Amino acid sequence: MRFDQLPTPCFVVDEALIEKNLKILNGVMQRTGAKIVLAQKAFSMTTFYPLIGEYLSGTTASGLYEARLGYEEMGKETHVFAPAFREDEIDEILSICDHIIFNSFSQLEKYKDKALKAGCKVGLRINPECSTQVGHEIYDPCSPGSRFGVKREDFRPELLEGVTGLHFHTLCQQNSDDLETTLNAVEAKFSDFLPQMEWINFGGGHHITRDDYDIPRLEACIKRMQEKYGLEVYLEPGEAVALNAGYLIASVLDLHKNGIDIAILDTSATCHMPDVLEMPYRPPLADSGEVGEKPYTYRLAGQTCLTGDVIGDYSFDRPLQCGDRLVFGDMAIYSMVKTNTFNGMALPAIAVQDKNGDCRVVSQFGYEDFKMRLA
To answer: Which run of H or of E encompasses 68?
Structure first.
């Protein structure tokens, strides 16, 4: 099957582009000795787990189900962090995870002995109180009132016995200069505890595979922790694994006019690309331009009843017609993992494009996938 023969809506992930990203990440591992694990919250397409496992050290999870996915489908190191763990899930989590990271000293007190008995490496998430994000505070774990991590003023050193690592995650789609700034804050607040640790986890949000990413600065940050404190360094990017490696193909269903030209698509920002509304951002679209850049401008909108189900305004070289296919870019990350069936919207099919350009559909969804989630 060729790209233009795929059904719509459909997520398509390019194998060659995934491997290109993995080679960049593996290069960092080879040069520094750091370990990089896939943050499944951004990309959980298990079709690619065997390939990812060839290049990376394992997976990290945000709870039991993601932990099971990484453990069962990749079978390498399995890390887990959650703001709080459930008592009815903790035993299963500990049976499959290598690293467990607690968000508070109360969670540490409650589960540390059980985790150590299970053979897990125990870590604690810290809050360095160093905000480096601008414009999307919803993703800033260091914002005032954040529920993530222990601040220095709340530290309880007497409870650190058995804790072998510290974890921080403060970045979102950022470069290594922000990591360096954060690392300075970590040292300023927690350097007295680093010598007694065995490992440190830099968290995610590192856009390592972006063209302008400063990899030498990242590697200097890694080596700094290795040489100064003798720590093993972990990174857990999600987006970097599948950055710019996926597409969402959609079709124009109808054309409408209300002061502006509107195209109704068979996809939805609300259901299929919710980060467009949450972030918010305007996803790239092949063969389009900014408003007014090309002769014909349209507002692209979804099928749902939500008035704000709008992907964005784009311009084109020619008028859109019903049946036209549109290809949105960078749709492998935070897309498939966030889809929903609001309004009974069907989930997009999921396809792989192999290195030869051939495509195959690996998942399709229907009415039962909508119905099974409801009572």
So the answer is: helix 64-73
Tell me: the pLDDT tens digits for 347-359? 999 999 999 999 9
Say which residue the tokens 């054309």 belong to: 255
Q: How far lies 375's CA from each of 345, 366, 372, in Å?
A: 17, 17, 8
> What domains sit in the chain, N to C, each tagged with a CATH number?
3-11+246-331+339-371 (2.40.37.10), 33-242 (3.20.20.10)
Q: Which residues are annotated as a binding site?
A: 239, 275
Helix, strand, coil: what percent of the chain each, to 5? Answer: 35, 25, 40
Binding-site annotation, residues for substrate: 239, 275
Calpha distance 250→364 (Å, rounded): 15
The owner of tokens 């809050």 is 127
pTM tops 0.90: yes
Which helix or strand (DSSP H or E) is residue 58 part of? strand 58-61
Tokens describing residue 55: 């290049």
Q: Take residue 241 and report the two structure tokens written for it.
A: 């694994």
